[in-house]
Amino acid sequence: MNKTSLLHAPARPATLLRLHPVEWALLLVAVIWGASYSAAKIATQQLPVLQFLVLRFGLTFLLLVPALRSITSVPAWKRSLAGALVLGVVLLAIFICETVGVSLTTASNAAFLISLCVVFTPWCEWLLLGQRPERSALIACALSFVGAALLAFQDGITLSHLSWGDALMVVAALLRGVMVCLTRRQGLRFGLPALTLTAVQMGVMTAGSLVLMMALPGQRWMPLPATASFWWAMAFLVLLCTIVAFFVQNHAAARTSASRVALLMGSEPLWGALIAVVWMQEHLSLQGWMGGLMIVGATGWVLRPRKHST
């Protein structure tokens, strides 16, 4: 489809019931990733963070090894592989920040604060892809920022109420914005299959976690937990949160804008908080819920029906 036909194509209302199948899949990812914070907190209470990452991504990589066979069929596959390796390094940094962060704060706080990627992504998209944010994205960013502030300071407006875990989740949110943009640029340039890209990323993250575990002092391989809760959490994180979710995100990133990917998954913090409250018996104040709902409201703003000029 050429540029002219795109400009004059009838506008499709962006209501929830008329989302594209790829966008419905992104909303499912939001639910899955919302639950991941509680699952990761359960797992990291029983195993050190780096060993947990080695195990999680090592198991995922083994399941995805067959997907690597198609990598040489992609034009310019060597440059494509190099780009995928860079994405793997960025993803490793994200998961180190997220996993350490969720171990130092509540699962509900982690779920809401990571959604600040909604704030950061349009600016990353502008800087990395040269795509100026739309006005709706900027309004959504402002709404998300206010919501995150209400959440972070729900116990009082003092920096003493923020933890290192909260700070790491904010860093992870910024890196997520960078990741979405880099993934989109990678997909547009080389077209590496989504499952193959995910397999390469998992290999890089496994190797990187293992190297860090060997290099940092005081790290050693601990006996694996024998509890059902740990292995149920690990199975959920490997099969749904990693293989399914990252396949969907990598598939969708080349088919819609980076800001839309981030904003469509804006319900993730709400699901994360609800699951943390029900599953982990965590508590959120009224202000915390208000902040969370403001973040989720940013998604509704972007999905509202709007007219496109011709």
Automatic annotation (TrEMBL):
It is found in: Cell membrane. The chain crosses the membrane at residues 21-43, 49-68, 80-104, 110-129, 136-153, 159-182, 194-216, 228-249, 261-280, 286-303. One of its GO terms (cellular component) is plasma membrane. Keywords: Cell membrane, Membrane, Transmembrane, Transmembrane helix. Residues 24-152, 164-302 form the EamA domain. InterPro entries: Diverse_Substrate_Transporter, EamA_dom, EmrE-like. It is a multi-pass membrane protein. PANTHER family: EAMA DOMAIN-CONTAINING PROTEIN (PTHR42920:SF5), OS03G0707200 PROTEIN-RELATED (PTHR42920). This is EamA family transporter.
